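Researcher: I'm preparing a figure for a lab meeting and need a structural model of a single chain. I don't have an experimental structure, so a prediction will have to do for now. The sequence is pasted below. Please return the structure as tokens so I can convert it later.
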Amino acid sequence: MKAFIDNVSQTSYVSAIVARKRLLFGVSLVFLILIAISLTETEDPNWTHGSGRFSHMTAHNGTLGNSTFPFGSGGPMRMGAGYQRPGYERPLANGLPLRIMAIGASTTRGDEGFDNNGFRRPVRDYLTSIGNPVNFVGPHRVGNMTDNDIEAWPGARTEVMHHRAEHSLPFMKPNLVLANLGSNDCFQNFDIPNFYKRYYQFVEYVLEASPRATLIMGTLLPTTETKRFNAGARVVEVNKQLRRLYKIFQKEKRPVVLAEMMGPDGIHPENLGPDLMHPNDAGYEMMGRIIVQAIIEADAKGFLRPAEPVYGILQDGNLERQDDAYKAWAEAKRLEGGGHERRRRGRGRGYGDRAQEIHGSNPGA
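Model: Understood. Here is the structure written out token by token.
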């Protein structure tokens, strides 16, 4: 009987059946392994832009390609729509209108640039080109672009801009804040070891005063100036603190994204203007590109949310400029609603003298 079974098992028909079962078993095993891998994938593997303009953003392995800052291990805080985009030509957050406040000092203002628009113009041009309405907001108008509102004071340190934000941010309620703070702390050599405390308090205030806001925190630009301020080493130290703070914000699940201005794809000394502190025109374009990358990351994490309605603030900043009659009506409504604007203006006039005493005529960044 054993010999008979051995002879049967060696026939071509039986051998084919056994081989087919082995093949099916191997295919099933590979299929199960692929399913297990797909279930553990947490980031979009298609974040690398084909043209290379945004090639440093690769979320496939949970890192920023030219950075050392991991995404939060506990997963992002889902605050807005957030979705996986197949490319960079589609609007963010399903075309969400973005009310943007740029906060900082002279680099935020675009000083030393030919048009004083700085990074705001390339940021606005990109966002509107993909279908997101944009309105920059702030108490000042700087630059030759139509939508040129801003909150920026040349020479102002971090705590000064925190104080300025208290007089504008609660009344304008941006849903996106672009912050570039700390350069003047370095130029004025002001308490560098404790910079992180001042910046953390600033971020806490922004997210409290405008609860729907996402904050893009920029690291500082390099400086090669040595005759007046010689702040290169202090900039390096402050940037280390900013990167550590960003890791803390990630662990706290805050809607904050880092815009890394240094590194291989960042600003280099050749991108600085004649004063060796502010960017030149190409440098401002690069800043805008880096900030756009950070905004796209914020969308992918689901951070972007609709701005709170505010009288007189439209979705389109250019249209807002054209509708003077509506703005006059909105101003009257604002004054009827409790006189917030009168109080804000009163505090602003009193603060102007104090701000001049604090940072004087330092040119700062």
